[in-house]
Amino acid sequence: PSALWHIGSIGKSMTASLIGALIDKGHLKWDSTLGELLPETPMRDNYRKVTLLQIMRHRSGIVQDMNFTRADVARIVGDERNPTTMRELYA
Predict the structure, then answer these.
(1) Does the predicted TM-score (pTM) go above 0.70?
(2) Which pLDDT tens digit goes with each residue over 34-80?
(3) What span, in angstroms and rounded, lies between the C-alpha atoms of 67 and 72?
(4) Sign of the C-alpha dihedral computed for residues 62, 88, 19 and 28 taken in this order
(5) How far is the C-alpha of 45 from the C-alpha of 10, rounded, in Å?
(6) Which of 34, 6, 7 is nearest to 19 (CA)?
(7) Is there a smaller number of Cβ atoms within 10 Å at the N or the C end of the chain?
(8) Element containing residue 52 per DSSP (H, E)
(9) Count of C-beta atoms within a 10 Å radius of residue 22
(10) What is the per-residue pLDDT across 18-28, written as a single tens digit (0 to 9) for each?
């Protein structure tokens, strides 16, 4: 209610715009891999070779929702309701 505008379902377009801007400025490259960009982040070995271009084209092979059950979600986020904290818990 206190927000000036609704932020529903625009995360993908905002992320794509941000990545494009960072590529234009030379901070990232389309062929940058997750392993290069996030070397300390735990992830599946096969995800380390995935490029930004593959992610942006939905061709990375990364599972969309990991088939989380309600029990999985409850285990990950518990009673947390703050969206930022919930995203951190998923990560």
Answers:
(1) no
(2) 999 999 988 889 999 999 999 988 888 887 766 788 898 899 889 99
(3) 9
(4) negative
(5) 29
(6) 34
(7) N
(8) helix 52-56
(9) 14
(10) 999 999 999 99
Helix 70-77 with 83-90: angle, nearest 10 deg:
110
| Tokens matching residue 50 | 């995935």
Q: Which two tokens stand for residue 41?
A: 């982040």
Residue in the block written with tokens 């939905």: 58
The Cα 38–Cα 48 span in angstroms is 8
Report d(CA 15, CA 20) in Å as an integer: 8
Q: Per the structure block, which two tokens stand in for 55?
A: 């992610």
**Residue 78: CB partners within 8 Å, gap ≥ 6?**
89
